Amino acid sequence: MKRVLFVCLGNICRSPMAEAIFRKKVAEQGLSDTITIDSAGTGNWHVGKPPHEGTRSILDDYQVSYSGMKARQVIQEDLQSFDYIIAMDAENIGVLRSMAGHQKTGEIARLLDFLPESDIADVPDPYYTGNFEEVYELVNASCDNLLDYIKKSL
Length: 154
Ligand code: 4NP
Hints:
This protein has one domain (2-151): Rossmann fold. It is 41% helix and 14% strand. It has helices at 14-28, 53-61, 78-81, 90-100, 126-129, 132-151, and strands spanning 2-8, 35-41, 84-87, 107-110.
């Protein structure tokens, strides 16, 4: 069993989109019993809320389920209990690394590290840009490569 946690700032736009898209890909490959997926935010403003309407709308367009998803904040224990902690941007990585201190953690990486052909390193925040389609395209492409990477360690 491998555990994957997607992390952004608010856990209502980018990381829930990644969680939902990745869960669908994992299910399509018959790996739902082998890989578990969650998401969380470094901030606590939206705890308990469903994904942002922009995220819901684009997931509806692409027929990706986000049923039952609710925002939560990253907790210390996540850093050990997840094998892969996949952040949306450099700021998220900074928060995760400072939470971790010197403790051993799962593998912390930026999602777009898995999309080397992209000329940007951070997933743009659609909470500010309004561009949920751009986020979908980046997340969808990088999640294919992330899944290939994780499958090598199953
Ligand atoms: P996310 O977007 O990190 O992709 O979920 C944000 C959502 C909410 C806020 C910031 C970013 N906020 O400041 O409330």
